[in-house]
Write a structure and sequence with these properties.
Radius of gyration: 41 Å
Shape: rod-shaped
Distance between the termini: 77 Å
CATH topology of the largest domain: conserved putative lor/sdh protein from methanococcus maripaludis s2 fold
Number of helices: 8
Order of helices and strands: HHEEHEEEHHHHEEEEEEEEEEEEH
Strand order of the largest sheet: 5-6-9-8-7-10
Largest sheet: 6 strands, antiparallel, barrel
């Protein structure tokens, strides 16, 4: 009897325990579990985001900490003034043909000097009855031939190189400075349809590799370039500032009379190029957003690009890390 009662008590205990486990053994709700792939909120906020402003410009938002990690540095553009300019295109002229014409001219002048002296001598002898008329006529013909030869070389010199070159006071010394590469002649042509009411006062010659040099205006070119079909101008520049080589292509910024333009100089390191244009990133008022703005790359200087709009000296532009911002902007969505 006692043994039966013991079995009944043990069964009751085991049954009660099973009921309790069924009710309380799975209290954890599925919604309470944190997914293993969910990232902390602070990690999400430390990523750069890309958006568009009301003008359609790309805007990159980036925290101060992330800016420091990316090495972003901003600075104000420098204020500057620039004389009115007109862009043209040209090349450094080869002085060898000019030197050959100078040699031919010197030879023709020497021949004319000899024949003219001979004519003077025969005229004196003919006056004394010591020279025949035939000899005198031959001397006259020789002197006239040599005189025409000198005139022919002078005409070719003026037509090929312009009167500004042909009428140099010391033409031999001028040509020597060109052949020794102390100076260079540069021809700048305007595009078809462009015209100037007055002559330029000078020019800035910009090499394709960067850097510029001041050039002195000599005169208008004597002929139109068959490709450009615009007016041409000849300039003289020293090669100590820029080692310009014959045949080298340059961009010529012709200086025009008038009041200088006010603007700012954008450093070259701030320029990024995409879509075939030049851009800069400008820091916003919050200090955490950068707007990419287009600038026109027309007025190159030794330290950067001169602009008259879009960016002012009061703006903060990215001078270090601009290419990094462009990479962030153009990276595929979802990429780290």
């Amino acid at each position: 009897m006692k043994r039966a009662i013991l079995f009944i008590l043990i069964g009751a205990v085991l049954g009660g325990g099973g009921v309790w486990l069924a009710k309380h053994g799975d209290d954890t709700k599925p919604g309470d579990e944190k997914p293993a792939t969910e990232k902390p909120a602070d990690e999400e906020s430390d990523k750069a985001s890309v958006s568009r402003d009301e003008d359609g410009n790309a805007v990159i938002t980036m925290s101060d900490e992330l800016q420091g990690d990316a090495g972003i540095v901003v600075a104000n553009p420098e204020a500057a003034q620039l004389a009115p300019e007109l862009k043209g295109y040209g090349r450094v002229l080869d002085p060898i043909p000019l030197g050959a014409l100078m040699t031919e001219l010197a030879s023709a002048r020497a021949a004319y000097a000899a024949s003219s002296n001979e004519l003077v001598r025969l005229n004196i002898l003919a006056g004394q009855g010591n020279a025949s008329a035939r000899a005198l006529q031959a001397a006259e013909a020789a002197a006239l031939r040599d005189q025409l030869a000198v005139q022919s070389v002078n005409d070719r010199l003026a037509l090929s190189w312009g009167r500004a070159v042909a009428e140099q006071n010391d033409l031999p010394g001028f040509i020597k400075s060109l052949t020794s590469r102390g100076k260079v002649l540069v021809r700048i042509d305007l595009t078809a349809g462009e015209d100037l009411q007055t002559s330029p006062t000078g020019a800035r010659l910009v090499r394709l590799s960067g850097g510029s040099v001041e050039a002195e205006f000599l005169g208008a070119a004597s002929a139109v370039d068959p490709q450009m079909q615009g007016r041409g101008f000849i300039f003289l520049a020293k090669t100590d500032a820029a080692q310009l080589m014959p045949g080298e292509a340059v961009v010529g910024l012709l200086k025009l009379p008038g009041e200088p333009l006010g603007g700012a100089i954008i450093p070259r390191s701030a320029i990024v190029r995409t879509e075939g244009k030049g851009w800069v990133y400008v820091l916003g008022k919050t200090g955490e957003n950068f707007t990419r703005k287009e600038i026109v790359l027309e007025h190159a200087t030794d330290t950067g690009w001169f602009v008259t709009n879009v960016v002012t000296v009061a703006d903060h532009v990215v001078v270090t890390g601009a290419q990094t911002l462009l990479s962030v902007e153009l990276k595929p969505a979802g990429a780290d």
